[in-house]
């Protein structure tokens, strides 16, 4: 559930493979061997369930991170980003010191590709030159970090002739973020970036790694899913995200279960916990897992319009039980519902980022206007509206 303002989060990205190849040649004085793209994601429902071994339902976005790359045989990975002016960061893949102007403060994003290179070295990959480009908005909670990891992972595997199936590659990218970056994320973001397909959401069991494609094409049902970047930026490598995870793990230990996914008697579990904070965390995770399963049932039954109630319930739970919403998210959902939207909720790790709103296409303009008016009344920065169309997962584009 990560979005940390990485190099993959500017809106000035080219998204043109030819232009990115040319930029690579200019930056590294040689031709790239290919360009790889990995998408950002929106999680339709199932928030903070992934690291609790639960269920999630994300889909890939049209926007994401692209990486032009060429192999190096000296065991060094060097990375530049078009979003940070092309400053160079280099690191040996065997774990030696990272070198770069402004490292790590202004170049913390480079920890993601470097971390992936170091984890994949154990599986036979080596060094590479990488130039990163992206068109995901910064701090919007759309998982630019996982997109950067997955584009890098595909590039390194292809460059060094290493075959790793995608579910396994997702776990390795997750491990890189956990161990090399220090972000205790779950498996959802990397799986979404690597496994999603157009016109579908991905039902993912975060314990087993098993997944299924669930049809999700809102436009065909006369619906529009708006992604609203609230412009309240967030960074999840701070303490709040880790604190929520620790609280969930503490609750699971007190209840004697491997993870909160295993709680089957919610009332009984709540009665056994004295700490009201832990009770709230458990209530969110357990009910959110049920909401994911209900949402999958609605989509498979051809009833996507009924998802609105699930989104609303999820938002209230994230706001009141998990306590990770923020004022712009609450105002966005409220304004959308008052304008006739079917439902909405915050997405991502929380404390800033984006909101999704499900509305009839005939009401979409009215909903946008209502949200804009709500921000204007409060003197907030105008939000950005993004296309939320279920799109393809990571792939080689050139």
Largest sheet: 7 strands, mixed
SS class: alpha+beta
Count up the helices: 11
Widest β-sheet, arrangement of strands: 6-5-4-7-3-1-14
Shape: globular
User: What is the oligomer described by this structure?
Assistant: single chain
- What is the typical, i.e. mean, pLDDT? 92
Order of helices and strands: HEEEEEEHEHHHEEEHHHHHEEHEE
Query: Spans with pLDDT under 50 lasting ≥5 residues?
Result: 1-14
Structural Rg: 21 Å
Alpha carbon gap, first and last residue: 28 Å
- Beta-strand residue percentage: 15-25%
Instruction: Indicate the percent of residues in helices.
Output: 25-40%
What's the total count of β strands? 14
Structure description:
By secondary structure, this protein is an alpha+beta fold. The chain is built from eleven helices and 14 strands. Strand 8 and strand 9 form a beta hairpin. The protein is globular and about 60 Å long. The two termini are 28 Å apart. The N terminus is likely disordered.
Can I get a quick summary?
This protein has 398 residues and is an alpha+beta fold.
Helices and strands in order:
Elements (H helix, E strand, L loop, with lengths): L16 H12 L5 E10 L11 E2 L1 E15 L3 E6 L7 E4 L6 E2 L10 H10 L6 E8 L9 H16 L6 H16 L6 H8 L4 E6 L5 E5 L7 E10 L6 H17 L10 H7 L3 H25 L6 H14 L6 H12 L4 E5 L5 E8 L3 H15 L5 E4 L7 E2 L2
Parallel strand pairs: 4-7
Antiparallel strand pairs: 1-3, 1-14, 2-8, 3-7, 4-5, 5-6, 8-9, 10-12, 10-13, 11-12
Helix pairs in contact: 2-3, 2-4, 3-4, 3-5, 4-5, 6-8, 7-8, 8-9, 10-11
């Amino acid at each position: 559930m990560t979005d940390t303002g990485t190099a993959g989060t500017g809106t000035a990205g080219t998204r043109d493979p030819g232009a990115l190849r040319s930029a690579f040649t200019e930056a590294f004085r040689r031709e790239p061997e290919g360009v790889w793209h990995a998408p950002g994601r929106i999680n339709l429902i199932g928030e903070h369930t992934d690291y609790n071994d639960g269920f999630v339902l994300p889909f890939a976005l049209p926007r994401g991170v692209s990486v032009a790359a060429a192999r190096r045989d000296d065991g060094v990975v060097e990375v530049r980003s078009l979003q940070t002016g092309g400053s160079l960061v280099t690191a040996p893949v065997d774990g030696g010191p990272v070198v770069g102007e402004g490292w790590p403060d202004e170049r913390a994003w480079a920890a993601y590709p470097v971390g992936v290179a170091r984890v994949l070295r154990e599986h036979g990959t080596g060094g590479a030159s990488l130039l990163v480009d992206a068109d995901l908005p910064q701090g919007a909670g759309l998982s630019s970090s996982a997109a950067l990891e997955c584009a890098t992972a595909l590039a390194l595997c292809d460059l060094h002739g290493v075959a790793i199936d995608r579910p396994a590659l997702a776990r390795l990218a997750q491990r890189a973020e956990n161990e090399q970056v220090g972000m205790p994320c779950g498996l959802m973001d990397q799986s979404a970036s690597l496994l999603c397909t157009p016109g579908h959401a991905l039902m993912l069991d975060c314990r087993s790694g098993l997944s299924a494609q669930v049809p999700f094409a809102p436009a065909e049902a006369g619906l529009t899913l708006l992604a609203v970047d609230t412009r309240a930026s967030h960074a999840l490598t701070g303490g709040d995200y880790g604190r929520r995870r620790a609280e969930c793990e503490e609750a699971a230990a007190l209840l004697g279960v491997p993870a909160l996914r295993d709680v089957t008697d919610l009332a009984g579990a709540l009665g056994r916990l004295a700490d009201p904070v832990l009770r709230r965390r458990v209530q969110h995770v357990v009910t959110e897992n049920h909401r994911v399963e209900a949402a999958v049932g609605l989509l498979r039954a051809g009833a996507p319009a009924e998802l609105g109630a699930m989104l609303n319930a999820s938002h209230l739970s994230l706001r009141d039980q998990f306590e990770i919403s923020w004022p712009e998210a609450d105002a966005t959902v409220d304004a959308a519902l008052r304008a006739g939207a079917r439902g909405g909720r915050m997405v991502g790790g929380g404390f800033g980022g984006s909101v999704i709103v499900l509305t009839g296409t005939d009401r979409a303009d009215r909903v946008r206007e209502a949200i804009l008016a709500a921000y204007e009344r409060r003197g907030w920065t105008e939000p950005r509206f993004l296309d939320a169309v279920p799109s393809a997962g990571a792939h080689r584009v050139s």
